[in-house]
């Protein structure tokens, strides 16, 4: 019988942490990137990507292009979530990644998505939070549904600057729904 994690924590990703995110994409195998809808050829170099985060980190929160959170289980990083296309006080687009394969399919993703959503609404003053994963990547779509997001539609699109054209599923969580989420201790 496996030991249940004793402590879930969501904390802001600092500039010192962004290497984890950069390495996650650069070190991923092609099959994993395909599930994510990511085109390896579109990834910025590690140095370019780090520089983008340095520039963004120097801005006030209200002007940031990205806001990211680390997911920790018993003090160890197991994944992260990030937002982009932020319109402070209105909406943002969320991304979610479990970096520890052994912790996938455990239900922790749902808890971390809820914790992250609550933090994004609080920190960014959001009215809505969107997420648009690859439609054929079952895990994030199930996680979003279980976390309280509402399905909007699926469409053929290129969801972001590192993505290839794909069918993506759009989900939304609005302020009323996030307030109704069960409280999870972080």
Automatic annotation (TrEMBL):
Residue intervals of the N-acetyltransferase domain: 8-176
SUPFAM superfamilies: Acyl-CoA N-acyltransferases (Nat)
Molecular functions per Gene Ontology: acyltransferase activity, transferring groups other than amino-acyl groups
Domain of life, source organism: Bacteria
Pfam family membership, one: Acetyltransf_1
InterPro entries: Acyl_CoA_acyltransferase, GNAT_dom
Name under which the protein is recorded: GNAT family N-acetyltransferase
Biological source species: Candidatus Neomicrothrix subdominans
Record lineage: Bacteria, Bacillati, Actinomycetota, Acidimicrobiia, Acidimicrobiales
